[in-house]
Amino acid sequence: MTEPTARYRTRALVLTAVLVMVLAAVVVRLAYLQLYRHEELARLAERQYSKTIPLRPQRGPIFDRNGSALAVSAEVESVFALPGRIADRAQVAAALAPRLGERPRDIEERLQGDRPFVWVKRKIPPVAAQGIRALRLPGVGTLPESLRFYPSRELGAHLLGFVGTDDRGLGGVELAHDRLLAGEPGVALVERDALGREVTAQPTILKAPVPGQSLVLTLDATIQYIAERELE
């Protein structure tokens, strides 16, 4: 065997050995990730491709002893945004402003930062929400909610109490029976691609919210009205 041939064979053997070691290291690394970090990596991938959002249930109605409605909830919708997914926030704010009846700069302020989720405006009429969806703005969507109102206005207000923006009872019967009236929240999924951009225009409902139960009081609305008039 000549000297050049021997040198060539030696170099080939060294190169082969290096490639084998590199491939072995890759295989060992993949095996480690698969065996020991599979669940962790799966969670990271899930967070990268999706985000879950809670859905508030419709609050149960309250009736007097004769079946007259004292507190009911109407179906409305709320506009949300994923600020980190909006490239031109000024443009998005300008598009939303006339449909929400607000100034563009006020909406743009809510879109600042890199928060994963922010409410743009809560509890708007369904027809207004439909107009928002028609715009197909990146990082903007709507979710169903409910609006609490009292048909008899101030009648029995001290007894009925009231609810906050999250539809939880803050006083009176609304607070005392909050667990019964509140229902069970649902879950919606916002899907995204590898770059974090939304794949679907609207969230996918993973679990529908369960409406709250109705409550019948021993109160008679007519008698209550007369009593309150006499006390004025």
Brief descriptors of the model:
Penicillin-binding protein 2a (Domain 2), single chain, 5-stranded mixed beta sheet, 232 residues, 9 helices, 2 domains
Describe this structure in words.
The structure is a single chain. The protein is α+β, with helices and mostly antiparallel strands. The protein folds into 2 domains: 3-36; 50-231, Penicillin-binding protein 2a (Domain 2) (Alpha-Beta Complex), CATH 3.90.1310. The protein has helices at residues 3-36, 38-49, 89-100, 104-110, 126-135, 157-160, 172-176, 178-182, 221-231, and strands at 50-55, 62-63, 69-81, 118-124, 140-149, 186-191, 204-207, 215-216. The strands form 2 sheets. Strands 2, 3, 4, 5 and 8 form a 5-stranded mixed beta sheet that branches. The protein has a 3-stranded antiparallel beta sheet with strand order 1-6-7. The longest helix has 34 residues, at 3-36. It is elongated. The model has no long low-confidence stretch (mean pLDDT 80).
Explain the layout of strands and helices.
Blueprint: H1 3-36, H2 38-49, E1 50-55, E2 62-63, E3 69-81, H3 89-100, H4 104-110, E4 118-124, H5 126-135, E5 140-149, H6 157-160, H7 172-176, H8 178-182, E6 186-191, E7 204-207, E8 215-216, H9 221-231
Parallel strand pairs: 2-8
Antiparallel strand pairs: 1-6, 2-3, 3-4, 3-5, 6-7
Helix pairs in contact: 3-4, 3-5
